[in-house]
Specification:
Number of helices: 6
Strand order of the largest sheet: 2-1-3
Strand content: 5-15%
Number of domains: 2
Distance between the termini: 64 Å
CATH architecture of the largest domain: 3-Layer(aba) Sandwich
Helix content: 25-40%
Order of helices and strands: HEEHHEHEEHH
CATH topology of the largest domain: GIY-YIG endonuclease
Number of strands: 5
CATH superfamily of the largest domain: GIY-YIG endonuclease
Structural class: alpha+beta
Low-confidence stretches: none
Amino acid sequence: MDTNRDSVFLKPLEDGIEFLPAEPGVYCIWNRINNRRYVGQSNDIYQRCRQHRNELSRGLSSNLPMRRDAAVHGADAFFFFAIRIDAIAGSEKASVLNKIETWLAVQLGTHDERHGYNLEAGRHRTRASRFRDRERKLLRPNSGKYELLPWVNIYDPIDAGLLESWVPGS
């Protein structure tokens, strides 16, 4: 066995940010521990992913499921890579980039919270996010609607059958 050839596979894991372009496009954040993914878009993929990494490291990510997993697995569990690099950024091309982001989120299953972290894609909230927004509104202390049972975590994945049967606005 040639140890020199095998040594390339023994290098420590990196987060991949240093290999990202400072260009517009769509990127993916992959949790190597639980295999959940996030798809996003930016006019500068490199800077946006650095911002994500810093927020995850400091526990400040606005994406609560990602922040929770970073607290459990550590920020080093996340790997960043570009999916598509485009010169279509800008206000007149934003709708095209939104469509690409949405299509990739669906193809990778990141809109399904069992497999991904996306709360929205292409400026559209996912079905689960809209459901959670409604539930949070009903759970407000002054709403008087109902309260969360002590053993229930509002951020656990929603049962797929329940989510399928939910009619938005009801």
